[in-house]
Amino acid sequence: MELPLFRGDLIGRPVATEMHYTKPLDARDEVEDLYDLLSDVKRQMPLIEGVSVGAILSDYQRLRVELVCQKLGLKSLAYMWHRDQHDLLSDIIESGVTAVGNLPGLAVGLCTG
C-alpha cells in the first residue's frame, strides 16, 4: 500500500499539562504542532476523514489528539484504546509486524548487565 508520509517539526513543548488542554497564551505547546501538521495533511488530502491514534492507556495523549481532530472536523480512531496490553502484544507478534523506531521511554526499567 502506497501512502504519503507527512512529518512536521516539533517546535513546542508540553506547556499545558493538565488533563484537559487549554491553549497557553505565553508559550507554544506541542499540541499546536500537531494541529499545524494535521491542518497541512487536510489541505493536501481534502478527502481525509480521520486519524488513527496509537494511544493504549494515555488519556493525556488521546484527549489531545481528539481535540485537534475535533477542531479540524476529523474523526479520532483509537482502535487500541484500553486493549489488554498482553493480548495486544500477542496480536502484534502473531500478525508478523516488524517495527523499527526510536522510542526514548523504551529504555526505562531495562538493565544493561
TrEMBL record:
Pfam family name, one: Diphthami_syn_2
Domain Diphthamide synthase: 27-99
Listed InterPro entries: Diphthami_syn_dom (IPR002761), DPH6/MJ0570 (IPR030662), Rossmann-like_a/b/a_fold (IPR014729)
EC number(s) given by UniProt: 6.3.1.14
Catalytic activity of the protein: diphthine-[translation elongation factor 2] + NH4(+) + ATP = diphthamide-[translation elongation factor 2] + AMP + diphosphate + H(+)
Leading EC class: ligase
Biological process according to GO: protein histidyl modification to diphthamide
Gene3D superfamilies with a match to the protein in the record: HUPs
GO molecular function: diphthine-ammonia ligase activity
Family matches, as SUPFAM superfamilies: Adenine nucleotide alpha hydrolases-like
Record protein name field: Diphthine--ammonia ligase
